[in-house]
Amino acid sequence: TVWGLHFSPSLVSTSNLPCWLVEEFVVAEECAPCSNFQAKTTPECGSTGYVEKITCSSTKRSEFKSCRSALMEQHLFWKFEGTVIGVALVFACLVIVRQRQLDRKALEKVRKQIESI
């Protein structure tokens, strides 16, 4: 059972799946940035640029598993926050400009009504 999923041996060939998908594992080395050599030779480095070394419990195989580092997540969070604040500021300015236009139109309309009396 992995993430609540049950794999039936007759339906899934486990020989070409990474061992951490089909059995329990222990993290041998924490999530760390890939070295230049790993980036070129380890396919797991491709998606995030970070890997952790894991050891599968029953087969005792050591493999690399792609992971997301806390530092990378923090950078992504602040990029997102900056983008949201930037967009909010742009739209706030647009609202202010539009409100001033509408106020001017309303004042002009009132002025014309007063003049026509």
UniProtKB/TrEMBL annotation:
InterPro entries: JTB. The keyword rRNA-binding does not apply. It is a single-pass type I membrane protein. The chain crosses the membrane at residues 76-97. Gene3D superfamilies: 3.30.720.220. Its main location: cytoplasm. Required for normal cytokinesis during mitosis. Plays a role in the regulation of cell proliferation. May be a component of the chromosomal passenger complex (CPC), a complex that acts as a key regulator of mitosis. The CPC complex has essential functions at the centromere in ensuring correct chromosome alignment and segregation and is required for chromatin-induced microtubule stabilization and spindle assembly. Increases AURKB activity. Inhibits apoptosis induced by TGFB1. Overexpression induces swelling of mitochondria and reduces mitochondrial membrane potential. Belongs to the JTB family. This is Protein JTB. It comes from Monodon monoceros.
